[in-house]
Amino acid sequence: MRTTDTPAAAAPPDVPDDLLAEYAAMGAATLADHERWPALADADLDRVTAGRAHPAAPVWVHATGDRLDAGDLAALAARRQAHPAGDARAGSPGTGPAGPPDGPPSWVAALVARAHATVPRYRSAARAGTSGASTPLHALPTVTRADLVADLAAHVPVDVPLDRVLEGTSSGSTGAALRVPLHPRWVAADLLLLHDLVAAAGGTWFADPDRLGLLNLVDQRTAFTYVSAMSAFPRPAGTPVPLMARVNLDASAWRRPGDRERWLADVDPQVVSTSALPLLHLLELAGAGLELHPVAVVNGATHVTPAVRAAVRATWGAPLVDLYGLRETGPVAAALDDGDHVVVDRRVHVEVLDASGAPVPDGARGEVVVTVDENPYLPLLRYRTGDHAALRRDARGTVLVGLEGRAPVRFADAAGRWRPSVDATQVLQAADLLAWHLHQDATGGVRLTAVPAHPGAADRAARAVREWLGRPVDLRVADRSATGHGKPHRFSTALDPATRTP
């Protein structure tokens, strides 16, 4: 079968420049497999080894595991038994009384009290008398991403042992990268939620040892790629653990021409989790002859259009789950059809506020603000997402109407090739920018407005963009006030994403 872009050379790709040294293949691998998956039997660990050694596999950049032990698996099973999978779209948490229909659920008051006893930010507020254990949620100040970037430790409870912290990263709205502490059980709970959402959308997702269970797909210049095992995946006793992989569609991530298509066809992933631009690329590959049979596609991180959803149905006959959330909060809401996003069945409470922080009436648009008590390392009270929607309550629960989140942006380089904005995010963060706005005008000209962390960072960033696109860059330096607390549009273009014309 033919490919739709230029294949890579035979040798493994080099890291593109010194700003991205962390993507050197296996440069950070330190643990043995039995430490990455302490609950798995040797036979399952052998499956991971075999998955890595596939003859058409891409260059694996990283090695990672879920770190779940037997106690974690028992706790996750007990949680699932106490709150069995049903309609995963239902908005009222299954972990306690829902509370009044127009107010927070009952668990929120307990979270507020616990935060004032254990979270440094709120312990300080209690000592200062500005808020306390009995303060209503609506009377608390909101939390912004800038707050977490400036002092993450102030939001981590002091009574939680930190010996099991996993690290997640988020490029975020302002451009400053945020490292988020994650707990293994919380990450695994996301997989169980995903399993429930696929079932609610009509997909049948079971442990099939002959197929890759989950494919996390990106399409960018550099990315962390790896094979992993899903220890917590629901399956009958004695069934081999399903594997998952994170893979980069970019041709440079593969060793030989055609390996990408051979590997994808051979592992035939059951569920594909991705975002809009990689999904469009995968649909192009399918149109060129790549045969896949996903039971569901999950879109996250960026907006998905009805046309893309229809293309998924037409190509694979599979449902598309549009999952909305942030790295800091975890999953917030999901749309299983062309309708609106329903807040997920977890300890997640959503408000919609105006620019001043005041609540707006149901049906009026405003900023989505999330209170969440799922990750023990980062409980959040009134976290401003920077995304906008209107709130409605109906039989499904809490509904986000007209959710306006992150839109994918592509830039045209000097050779006429599309380049995804995530490539720019990597180099601009690595160049020590606090925030930026990168714009391409109708003639292809590029303007970078940069908020540098230190002198020289803006010039370094401009050079990186110039090398990336092969175009001159008009650099404008702004001050820190440009970061704000909302979600500015970091990327924009005057070129149509389909025709490259204005």
TrEMBL record:
Pfam families, alphabetized: AMP-binding
Which residues does UniProt assign to the signal peptide? none
Give the residues annotated as coiled coil.
Answer: none
Entries under Gene3D superfamilies matching the protein: N-terminal domain of ligase-like
**Which parts of this chain are annotated as the region Disordered?**
79-105, 479-502
Q: What is this protein called?
A: AMP-dependent synthetase
- Annotated AMP-dependent synthetase/ligase domain ranges read 296-370
